[in-house]
Amino acid sequence: MKLITVCILIVFSSIGFVQAQEIAKDDALASAGWRELVFDGKIPNTFVQGFDKSIEVKSDKSVSLLYKKVDINLVETPKLSWAWKVEKSVPITDLSVKGKDDRALAVYVSFPFDEERAGFWERFIRSFVVAFKGEDTPGRVISYVWGGDVQIGTVLESPYLKDAGAMIALQKAKTFGSAWQFERVDVAKDYERIFGMPANRPFQIAISADTDDTLVDSLGWIKNLRFERD
After folding, report:
1. N or C terminus of the chain: which is more exposed, having fewer CB within 10 Å?
2. Are the CB atoms for 167 and 210 separated by under 8 Å?
3. Residues 6+ away with beta carbon under 8 Å from 151
4. Domain limits at 96?
5. In CATH, what number is assigned to the domain containing residue 148?
């Protein structure tokens, strides 16, 4: 019984106990299909679409995610590109430690849960995930992160999703200013090297910032998120 109780506590700690999905507060983002994932007891970020279709991400001791559904075939369009910049960053944090993993910006690609692909941990927590987050909650997630101080390209296991999630460091916390940084990643290859099998179709993309641990504020922008051919 003690082991079961401990496991359940670990599950709740990993998946987040309460959260809510809302239509994006910015009208332009809402009309483009963006929704916001907010967390109980946490101040949400502020997301605003600019005249150039860039998304401004303000975080002030806060955390939330802006996400939308996608229908992408990675065989045809395996690359994801975007531009981003950070005017005000967070301090250097340890991205691998839950509760100490603040970051200035992140881009997420989410994949549906697949029983045949899932490892033991993924299958074990799935019923809890569905109960508290819903059937459409992602199974596996890759996030591309602006934060921390590890070598660019380093892959880290998600402290929240364990082996069902991975972070790839693309920009360091100390890199910020007025210049746009341009990224182009191969999501299909990243999935295969992380999870050891070909990728299935992603069904959500998301962007976020996270400053609720360091209790600071950050400011950044993301634009031109799109999947492309080789």
Report:
1. N
2. no
3. 169
4. 2-228
5. 2.60.120
* Block residue for tokens 């929704």: 35
Instruction: Compute the C-alpha angle 197/201/203, nearest 5°.
Output: 130
Which residues 6+ apart lie within 8 Å of 105 measured at CB? 57, 84, 86, 145, 146, 147, 171, 207, 208, 209, 218, 220, 222
Q: For the whole model, what pTM was predicted?
A: 0.83
* Overall domain count for the chain: 1
- Closest residue by Cα to residue 39 from 20, 13, 26: 20
Angle at 124 between CA 120 and CA 130, to 5 degrees: 135
Mean pLDDT of all residues in 183-206: 94
User: Distance of CA 82 to CAs 23, 54, 78, Å?
Assistant: 23, 10, 14
Q: Which residues contact 92 (CB under 8 A, 6 or more apart)?
A: 147, 148, 149, 172, 173, 174
- Helical pair 120-133 and 2-15, crossing angle rounded to 10 deg: 70
Q: Which two tokens stand for residue 155?
A: 């892959």
pLDDT digits over 94-146, tens only?
999 988 999 999 999 988 855 555 554 444 444 434 334 444 555 688 999 99
State the average pLDDT for the chain: 84
Nearest-angstrom CA–CA distance, 205 and 138: 10
